[in-house]
Design a protein that fits this description.
- The chain is an alpha+beta fold.
- It has 3 domains: 2-107 and 498-507, Uridine Diphospho-n-acetylenolpyruvylglucosamine Reductase, domain 2, CATH 3.30.43; 113-227, Uridine Diphospho-n-acetylenolpyruvylglucosamine Reductase, domain 3; 231-468, Vanillyl-alcohol Oxidase, Chain A, domain 3 (3-Layer(aba) Sandwich).
- The chain contains 16 helices and 18 strands.
- An 8-stranded antiparallel β-sheet has the order 14-11-13-12-16-17-15-18. Strands 5, 6, 7, 8, 9 and 10 form a 6-stranded antiparallel β-sheet that branches. Strands 1-2-4-3 form a 4-stranded mixed β-sheet, with helices on both faces.
- Helix 13 packs across helix 14 (445-461).
- It is globular.
- The two termini are 17 Å apart.
- The model is unreliable at 1-25 (pLDDT under 50).
- Bound molecules: flavin-adenine dinucleotide.
- The site of flavin-adenine dinucleotide (FAD) has 35 residues, from strand 3, helix 6 and strand 10.
Length: 514
């Protein structure tokens, strides 16, 4: 049946066909199979804008059954692959399928939201894998509840982030999003639809979390919730010294709940008035001004900022919030006078990157290539990383945020497929979130990719203990090195749950068996 669809498409490639009749019937979908040039062109692009692979057709499933039908159809064909596409916010074509089927998870279930339940401190939401986190948040807030762990940007799907990890400033307390899900519905590479959790089908559950889409397509997830606060005191404090910055950041992430902030991140920026990379990126409000005179004359070319959030209720008096924030800030060694704060609603805080998205869309920065690089660097090497990378290779910035903040290993479950640096309880997320106008108004993507390569080479040359987050490699040899001791388990899981290597071909880890 797929062979028929394939022949049909090749013979009629130039025709615009939105076919939910002939091919939809062939696949027996409740949803549709769209092989129009517009649909396949859109599925051959992602946020990275660096790679392109055109699928045969795009499946718009109506639910899990259609996802299973698509995988089964691919299994029966000699060479088709299936890529689940969340919101296509990958950088390197990870959600693409060259000549195969792309399953648009956003279209499954018009209402992505099944239930909010629980009570007695065990609240949860069951949502579709293709739901956007911003929609999950919005729905949960109606019940005074909210997920515990986020990404900085919420225009990403539940399935897309759970296939990686899903990290933001709450991870020090709750772990990544993969640590905050208790049950999944998954369509495996064998086309079976299974419910899995820590106790049932646990090998599949842990394989899929951080599994880069290799073992199954997440069609539903049960997510832990907590009572939502009304407000967040959003604070930024500046450091000239990396040692002091990391000392304070590490102290904050290891303090008990109630004796620390509720959100802890950090970033490096350039000690200059550069509007994109320097001082103007720190204030939280138009009325606030970064006063460089506060810095010591010997401050270096790169500065650091701790970004903190303190939850509070609308009914709390401003003085009580001041007093808690003051007590916590009083222990920190930031540069006096370089402290910025704002009180915002909880939703506004969590949706803060949406404003940046609007601005970037208006200026053309959103649709330009994004050669982003994300790393986990062990605490043991982060000072050398700072010297070599932030103060060396990136001393002029990356045209966007350079996040650097500590995370605790014990908040991650070793049984998931995510790979972390080898040693130590604390490691750092380093995220180089580059924004630039397309060449020739900005640097060429090749030049920036080559700078990313220089950074990785420097890490290798110096023997840093690091791993790529949202990894991308082209050869199995490189993937083997990435997974290290966990490679054998990853391969066993693949053999068990997707033996024909149907799923997520864009990750370039395994090749489709015939
Ligand atoms: P896609 O790009 O569509 O897919 C990613 C991978 O997951 C593909 O291999 C795909 O096949 C697979 N996949 C998608 N859906 C499913 C599913 N339902 N089941 C199984 N596999 C699936 N990450 C963080 O951790 N923290 C951040 O703060 C953060 N901020 C970001 C901000 C921006 C602006 C962008 C562009 C990315 C950010 N990311 C962040 C990275 C993001 O988490 C990943 O790129 C994520 O994969 C994107 O989700 P998506 O829904 O777009 O997935």
């Amino acid at each position: 049946m797929i062979a028929y669809a394939e022949r049909f498409v090749h013979e009629n490639d130039s025709e615009m066909r939105q076919d939910d009749g002939v091919s939809g019937l062939d696949l027996q979908l409740q949803g549709t199979l769209d092989w129009s040039p517009a649909a396949t062109a859109s599925a051959s692009k992602d946020f990275g804008g660096l790679r392109s692979a055109k699928p045969l057709a795009v499946v718009r499933p109506s639910g899990s059954d259609d996802v299973a039908r698509s995988v089964k159809a691919a299994l029966r064909s000699p060479n088709l692959t299936v890529a689940a596409r969340g919101n296509g916010h990958s950088i390197n074509g990870q959600a693409m399928s060259d000549g195969g089927l792309v399953v648009d998870m956003r279209s499954a279930d018009t209402d992505h939201f099944q239930v909010v339940g629980g009570g007695c401190g065990a609240d949860y939401a069951v949502v579709a894998g293709g739901a956007l986190w911003e929609d999950v948040l919005e729905r949960c807030l109606r019940y005074g509840l909210a997920p515990r762990s986020y990404t900085d940007f919420l225009g990403l799907t539940v399935g897309g982030t759970l296939s990686n990890a899903g990290l933001s400033g709450q991870a020090f307390r709750y772990g990544p999003q993969t640590s905050n899900v208790t049950e999944l519905e998954v369509v495996t590479g064998l086309g079976e639809t299974l419910i899995c959790s820590r106790s049932d089908n646990s090998e599949l559950f842990f394989a899929v979390l951080g599994g880069l889409g290799q073992f199954g397509i997440i069609t539903k997830a049960k997510i832990l919730l907590q009572p939502a606060p009304d407000m967040v005191r959003w604070i930024r404090v500046v450091y000239a010294d990396f040692g002091e910055f990391t000392r304070d950041a590490e102290s904050l992430v290891t303090r008990p709940d109630g004796d620390t902030f509720d959100y802890i991140e950090g970033f490096a920026f350039v000690n200059s008035d550069d509007p994109v990379n320097g001082w103007p990126t720190v204030p939280l409000d138009r009325d606030q001004r970064f006063d460089p005179a506060r810095l010591a004359p010997d401050a270096g070319s790169v500065l650091y900022c701790l970004e903190l959030g303190l939850h509070h209720q609308g009914s709390d008096s401003p003085s009580s919030v001041d007093s808690v924030a003051g007590r916590l800030l009083g222990r920190l060694g930031f540069v006096e006078g370089l402290e910025f704060r704002r009180d915002v609603s909880y939703a506004e805080f969590l949706l803060r990157v949406k404003h940046a998205e609007r601005h970037a869309k208006a200026t053309g920065l959103w649709d330009a290539p994004h050669p982003w690089l994300n790393l986990f660097v062990s605490k043991a090497d982060i000072a050398d990383f700072d010297r070599t990378v932030f103060k060396g290779i990136l001393k002029d910035g990356v045209g966007g945020p350079m996040l650097v903040y500590p995370i605790l290993r014990t908040r991650w479950d070793k049984r998931t497929s995510v790979v972390l640096p080898e040693s130590g309880e604390i490691f750092y997320l380093v995220a180089l979130l580059r924004y630039a106008l397309p060449y020739p108004d900005g640097p060429s993507a090749d030049k920036v990719v080559s700078q990313n390569r220089d950074i990785l080479q420097a890490c290798d040359k110096n023997g840093f203990d690091y791993k790529l987050y949202l990894p991308y490699y082209q050869s199995q040899e490189e993937w083997k090195r990435h997974f290290g001791k966990q490679w054998a388990r990853f391969v066993e899981r693949k053999a068990r749950f997707d033996p024909m290597a149907i799923l997520a071909p864009g990750q370039k880890i395994f090749s489709r068996s015939s």
